[in-house]
C-alpha cells in the first residue's frame, strides 16, 4: 500500500484526535427520539381522525403562545385530534418553528397511521393523540431517560447538591405563570464541577400539576441514573436536565456561579476530575506517539512521495475498481458515437460491459481541475449513497492520469432534454412532472438529513437530474466533494462553483452556503418544470421576462395559469395542485435565506395538501420592471443545450 503524505496524515490524525477528545469530554445524546403508540392503535387513510389530525398539525404553528408553546384540538369524541409542541424556553422562535415543522414530518413518516405518537428533539417536543394530553394518566406515559456514561465518584455527595438544586428549579418553573413555565440556573457542583440545570412544564398545566410532574421527574434521577454527571428526563408534560457543561443557547440563562466549595472525596476513591485527567492525558500521549511514528515512516520513503496520494480512501472500495482497458472496450475507446454529452469536469459516454449491462462512463478531463483527492472523495461519497432518487455508482477506474466514474445508465437522459424541448415536453403530463418534483425533493432530503454524511449538492439543475425508463428522477453529479467539520451545516468559500441562475445571492455575493442553497436551486427547478422555461430571461409576447420575477408576479396577481407550460393539458382537478406547487417553489427562492424552508418541510408540504402554506416574499434577483440590461438580450429559448456554465460540487458533513 502506498504511503500518504506527512501533512495529510498529520491533519487526519489531528481531526480524529479532536473528535475523540470531544467525545471523551462531552457525551451528547443523538436526537431525535420518536416514540410510537405501543398499543398499535392505528387509523385509516381518509378517516375522520386522519382529517382532524391533518387539520390540527397544519394549524399548530399558528397557535404559538408567543413563548414556544403550541396547542391545538380538532374534532369531537373519539375522532378528536389533540396536538401540542413545546420548545425549550431559551430557543428563538425561528429555531422553534423549524423544529416544529421537522418534528411533524419525521413523526408522520416514522409512526405511520398511529393514532398517538411523540418525538423529542433537544430543543422541542411534539405529541399528538386522540386522548387527552393533560390528563393525569398521561404524566409518565411517554417518559424517556438519557444519561451520561460517567458518574461522580461519590453518589451521596452529588445527590446532596443535586436534589436541593433541582427542587429550587422545580419551584421556579412551576410558578412561572400561564405563558412560560421554565427555569435554568447553575450551582457549584461536587468534585470541583459546576452543575447546569433546567426544568420546564407545558404552560397550560396548573402550578400544582407542574410541581407534581417535575417532582416525579426529579425523583427519577436517583432511580434511573443515580450519580451520573449528566441526565435528561423527557416527558410530554415536563422535562428536567442537568449537566456539568453549559448547554444553553443563550448564556444569559446561566449566571456565573458563586465560588466553588468542593466536597471532600471519600478515602480510597478517585475523583471525577482525576479520572478526567487520565481520560484526556492518555489519548493525547497516545495520539502524539502514533502521529510521530507515522510521520517518521512517511519521510523514510521519500522516493514514493509523488505517488502517496493516489490510493488514499480507495482501499476500502477496491471491489468497485475496473481495469481501464475494460472501460475503453466498453465505450469503444471513448468513441464520439458513444458520447452522451459534456458534463462538469469531463465527458460522459455510453458503454456496454461484457455481460451486456448498459453503463454511463464519466471520463474526467485533465483540464477539469478535479484532482486526485476530489476524485476519491466522489468515489467514497457516491458509493455510500443508497436512495431511489440518486444515481447509483457502479465502479471507477484510477490508472495513471486517467480517472473514470461508472454509473448506472439512465435511458431517458436528463430532465432538461424534456422540459426545454418543444416536442419532448409533451411526454411529461402533470402527473409525471409532479412525481419528478417529489422525487427530487426526496433525494435532496436524503442528502441533507438522512444519509450517513450530510451533503450539500451546490449544483442542482435540470441537466443534473436523470430519468430512468419509468421517468423516475435521479439526482446526479456529485463531483468536487468538500469535507466539512463535524456537524457543520453551513460555511463560506472563496471558490464559487455551480450554475448561475440556480445559485442564491448569499452564495454568489458572499460565498456563504448551507442546505438552503440546494433549497433555492430546487425552487428554481420547480418553476422550470411547471413553466417549461429556463431560468433567466425569456420572451412573453415579445416582452422579456425573468423567470423568478414573472412567476412571483403571476402568483401574486392570482394569474398563475398564464405561467403554466401550454403543452400541459391541465384538468381543473390538477390546477389547484399546480398552483400550490408554484407557491412552494416561490417559498424556496425567497431572497432571505432564513425564510426558505428546509427540505423536510418541502417534502411535507408537497405530500400534505391540508397544510397551510406561508405567503412567499419577493424572490432573489427580483426585477421591478421589465426593462432589461444590455446583458440580458440573449433570451433563453427551448433547446437541448444547458443554460449557464456547467460545474459540479458537493459538500459533506460527517455525523
From TrEMBL:
SMART domains, per database record: S_TKc
Membrane topology: Single-pass membrane protein
A GO MF term: protein serine/threonine kinase activity
Record CDD domains: Gnk2-like (cd23509), STKc_IRAK (cd14066)
Gene Ontology biological-process annotations: response to abscisic acid
SUPFAM superfamilies cross-referenced by the UniProt entry: Protein kinase-like (PK-like) (SSF56112)
Annotated spans, Disordered: 626-655
Superkingdom of origin: Eukaryota
Transmembrane segments: 277-299
Keywords, comma-separated and alphabetical: ATP-binding, Glycoprotein, Kinase, Membrane, Nucleotide-binding, Phosphoprotein, Receptor, Repeat, Serine/threonine-protein kinase, Signal, Transferase, Transmembrane, Transmembrane helix
Residues annotated as signal peptide: 1-27
GO CC field: plasma membrane
Biased composition (Basic and acidic residues): 635-644
Binding site for ATP: 362
Keyword Cell membrane: no
Sequence ranges assigned to domain Gnk2-homologous in this UniProt record: 31-133, 140-247
Name used for this protein in its record: Uncharacterized protein
Amino acid at each position: 500500500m502506498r504511503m500518504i503524505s506527512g501533512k495529510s496524515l498529520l491533519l487526519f490524525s489531528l481531526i480524529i484526535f479532536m473528535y475523540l477528545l470531544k467525545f471523551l469530554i462531552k457525551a451528547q445524546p443523538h436526537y431525535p427520539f420518536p416514540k410510537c403508540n405501543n398499543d398499535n392503535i392505528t387509523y385509516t387513510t381518509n378517516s375522520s381522525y386522519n382529517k382532524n389530525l391533518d387539520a390540527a398539525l397544519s394549524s399548530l404553528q399558528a397557535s404559538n403562545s408567543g413563548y414556544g408553546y403550541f396547542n391545538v384540538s380538532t374534532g369531537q369524541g373519539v375522532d378528536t385530534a389533540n396536538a401540542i409542541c413545546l420548545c425549550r424556553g431559551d430557543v428563538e422562535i425561528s429555531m422553534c418553528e423549524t423544529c416544529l415543522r421537522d418534528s411533524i414530518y419525521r413523526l408522520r413518516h416514522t409512526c405511520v397511521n398511529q393514532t398517538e405518537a411523540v418525538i423529542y428533539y433537544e430543543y422541542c417536543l411534539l405529541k399528538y393523540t386522540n386522548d387527552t394530553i393533560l390528563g393525569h394518566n398521561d404524566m409518565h406515559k411517554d417518559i424517556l431517560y438519557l444519561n451520561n456514561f460517567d458518574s461522580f465518584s461519590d453518589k451521596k455527595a452529588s445527590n446532596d447538591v443535586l436534589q436541593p438544586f433541582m427542587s429550587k428549579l422545580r419551584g421556579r418553573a412551576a410558578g412561572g405563570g400561564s405563558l412560560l413555565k421554565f427555569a435554568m440556573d447553575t450551582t457549584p457542583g461536587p468534585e470541583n464541577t459546576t452543575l447546569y440545570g433546567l426544568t420546564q412544564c407545558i404552560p397550560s398545566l396548573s402550578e400544582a400539576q407542574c410541581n407534581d410532574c417535575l417532582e416525579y421527574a426529579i425523583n427519577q434521577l436517583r432511580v434511573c441514573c443515580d450519580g451520573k454527571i449528566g441526565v435528561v428526563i423527557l416527558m410530554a408534560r415536563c422535562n428536567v436536565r442537568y449537566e456539568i457543561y453549559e448547554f444553553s443557547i443563550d448564556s444569559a440563562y446561566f449566571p456565573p456561579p458563586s465560588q466553588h466549595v468542593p466536597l471532600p472525596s471519600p478515602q480510597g476513591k478517585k475523583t471525577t476530575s482525576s479520572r478526567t485527567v487520565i481520560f484526556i492525558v492518555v489519548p493525547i500521549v497516545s495520539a502524539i506517539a502514533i502521529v510521530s511514528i507515522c510521520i517518521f515512516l512517511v519521510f523514510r520513503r521519500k522516493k514514493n512521495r509523488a505517488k502517496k496520494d493516489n490510493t488514499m480512501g480507495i482501499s476500502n472500495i477496491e471491489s468497485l475498481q475496473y481495469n481501464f482497458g475494460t472501460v475503453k472496450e466498453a465505450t469503444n475507446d471513448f468513441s464520439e458515437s458513444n458520447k452522451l454529452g459534456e458534463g462538469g469536469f469531463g465527458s460522459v459516454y455510453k458503454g456496454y460491459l461484457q455481460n451486456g449491462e448498459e453503463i454511463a462512463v464519466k471520463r474526467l478531463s485533465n483540464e477539469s481541475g478535479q484532482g486526485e483527492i476530489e476524485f476519491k472523495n466522489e468515489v467514497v461519497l457516491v458509493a455510500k449513497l443508497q436512495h431511489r432518487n440518486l444515481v447509483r455508482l457502479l465502479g471507477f477506474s484510477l490508472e495513471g492520469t486517467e480517472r473514470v466514474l461508472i454509473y448506472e445508465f439512465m435511458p431517458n437522459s436528463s430532465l432538461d432534454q424534456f422540459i426545454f424541448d418543444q416536442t419532448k415536453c409533451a411526454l411529461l403530463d402533470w402527473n409525471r412532472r409532479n412525481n419528478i418534483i417529489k422525487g427530487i425533493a426526496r433525494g435532496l432530503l436524503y442528502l441533507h438529513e438522512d444519509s450517513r454524511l450530510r451533503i450539500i449538492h451546490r449544483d442542482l439543475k435540470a441537466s443534473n437530474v436523470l430519468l430512468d425508463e419509468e421517468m423516475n428522477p435521479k439526482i446526479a453529479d456529485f463531483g468536487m466533494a468538500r469535507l466539512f467539520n463535524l456537524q457543520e451545516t453551513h460555511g463560506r468559500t472563496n471558490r464559487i462553483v455551480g450554475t448561475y441562475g440556480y445559485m442564491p445571492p448569499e452564495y454568489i455575493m458572499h460565498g456563504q452556503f448551507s442546505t438552503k442553497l440546494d433549497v433555492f436551486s430546487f425552487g428554481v427547478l420547480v418553476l422550470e418544470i411547471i413553466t417549461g422555461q429556463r431560468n433567466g430571461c425569456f420572451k412573453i409576447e415579445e416582452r422579456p421576462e425573468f423567470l423568478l420575477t414573472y412567476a412571483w408576479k403571476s402568483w401574486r396577481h392570482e394569474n398563475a395559469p398564464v405561467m403554466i407550460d401550454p403543452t400541459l393539458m391541465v384538468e381543473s382537478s390538477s390546477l389547484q395542485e399546480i398552483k400550490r406547487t408554484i407557491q412552494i417553489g416561490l417559498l424556496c427562492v425567497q431572497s432571505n435565506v432564513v425564510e426558505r424552508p428546509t427540505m423536510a418541510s418541502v417534502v411535507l408540504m408537497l405530500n400534505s395538501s391540508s397544510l397551510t402554506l406561508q405567503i412567499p416574499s419577493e424572490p432573489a434577483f427580483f426585477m421591478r420592471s421589465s426593462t432589461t440590461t444590455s446583458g440580458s438580450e440573449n433570451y433563453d429559448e427551448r433547446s437541448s443545450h444547458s443554460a449557464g456554465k456547467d460545474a459540479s460540487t458537493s459538500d459533506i458533513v460527517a455525523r
